[in-house]
Design a protein that fits this description.
Layout lengths: L2 H31 L8 H34 L10 H16 L2 H5 L1 H11 L3 H8 L16 H10 L3 H14 L10 H8 L3 H10 L5 H18 L8 H7 L5 H12 L3 H11 L1
């Protein structure tokens, strides 16, 4: 192969690999590293960011090894294959493989990831912030009057109860999970990456009210927040009912009066006069 052909091939390989790295960097930058509106906790974000930085760094090193290998082969008049430094590339893959094997949340998926986030991921600052979201509904200590199945379940999750409560409150307030008319304990469990039985247990033994009552109360609190944000300036009360997850206006009206002791209309008049 002529020197001109080798140089051309090297340039093509170089442009391809540099473009590949640039595209990957841009995707990570826009979708993860500098994105501020991800609906995940800070700890979860740190795990994702650290993993992507690790894998991206390995990719950059692998690209450098290939470029050095191709450049060396071109200077030595060898066939351009990028394999002359393949041992180093193999080491990079071994690092990735070892990292995966020693990271349970990657091997076993979301339940282990969520357990790690719940158990170890809440910083003092986050705990303080989340504590302000807690209602007086929750009870941490309960009696041992449970059936055998619930007692076995208690042994598995008792250390995570406080974290479960915090995460349920965050999902309710920040992600508005109950705007889904069919929201159920299973939907919350899927969000947290835990079995549905954990959420059923939580509301059975650690909540002063049932799940359906908690859902109703949360929807009314959501509607009040929307009212205070000016939602009704451009929308109707019927629209507000649908927005917050009610099937129609009538159950919204009944729930609103039950929670606040006001009808939606009376509350709106009182709020406007106060403002």
């Amino acid at each position: 192969m002529s020197d001109y052909g080798k140089i051309t091939n090297f340039i093509l390989v170089f442009l391809f690999l540099v473009t590949y790295i640039a595209v990957i960097f841009n995707i990570l930058r826009k979708n993860i590293w500098f994105k501020k509106d991800l609906l995940i906790s800070d700890t979860h974000f740190k795990l994702v960011r650290n993993w992507t930085v690790y894998l991206f760094s390995i990719n950059v090193l692998a690209v450098l090894i290939i470029l050095i290998s191709v450049y060396t082969e071109a200077n030595k008049d060898l066939l351009l294959s990028g394999k002359s430094l393949a041992t180093f590339s193999l080491l990079f893959w071994l690092f990735i493989y070892f990292k995966i094997l020693t990271t349970p949340e990657i091997l076993y998926g979301l339940p282990i990831l969520n357990k790690k986030i719940l158990k170890f991921g809440i910083t003092e600052q986050e705990t303080e912030e989340v504590s302000t979201l807690k209602s007086n509904n929750w009870v941490l200590e309960v009696s041992d009057q449970k059936n055998d199945q619930d007692l076995k379940l208690q042994e598995k999750i008792i250390s995570n109860i406080d974290s479960y409560i915090q995460e349920v409150e965050k999902i309710c307030i920040e992600e508005h999970i109950f705007r889904n008319p069919k929201a159920s304990p299973t939907d919350i469990a899927n969000k947290l990456g835990v079995p549905t039985s954990h959420i059923v247990y939580l509301f059975k033994y650690h909540s002063k009210i049932s799940f359906s009552e908690y859902r109703m109360h949360s929807r009314i609190m959501d509607s009040i927040n929307l009212i205070e944000q000016g939602y009704l300036k451009t929308n109707t009360l019927e629209s507000l009912a649908y927005k917050t997850g009610f099937a129609s206006y009538n159950p919204f009206f009944s729930a609103f009066k039950k929670v606040t002791n006001y009808s939606p209309q009376d509350y709106l008049k009182t709020y406007r006069s106060a403002v």
